[in-house]
Structures are given as C-alpha cells and as structure tokens.
Specification:
Elements lengths: L1 H5 L1 H61 L4 H5 L5
Length: 82
Amino acid sequence: MNDFVKTVTGKKFYEKDVPSLITQLKRIGDILESIQKEQTTARVEERKRHKIDTKRMIAEALEEYLKSKPLDENAKTGRTEI
C-alpha cells in the first residue's frame, strides 16, 4: 500500500480522486436527507388528509342517517315525557 502512494497514479488517486469521491458522497448524503425530509412531510400531510376524510365521511353518514330517520319532537329537543 505504501508503494502505491509513491507512484504517479497513487499520488493522483490520493490527492485528487479521494477528495472528489468524498465530495460526491457528501452530495449524495445531502440528496438522500432531503428526500427523506420530503417523504416525512408527505406522510404527515397524508395522515392529516386521512383524518379530515374520515371526519367528513362520518359527518356525511350521520347526516344521511338523520335525514332517513325522522325524529319525533321529544327526541329533537332532548326532552322526555313522564
């Protein structure tokens, strides 16, 4: 290994190629990190949309139920006759 450093190719490799590889690896790491952040944000937004959709579906089902089952006057007011 020490002999490789002494060659022209080895010197070029350690002085030029290795620093370039390190720079490229850093760029790849930064890109992967940004992709991960975007995916996390997308998952959070999807969960919010899912909750909103679920609440909307429940409200619509309740509204349809109330339309299909007319309530008598006592049930509407919450009063009971004794």
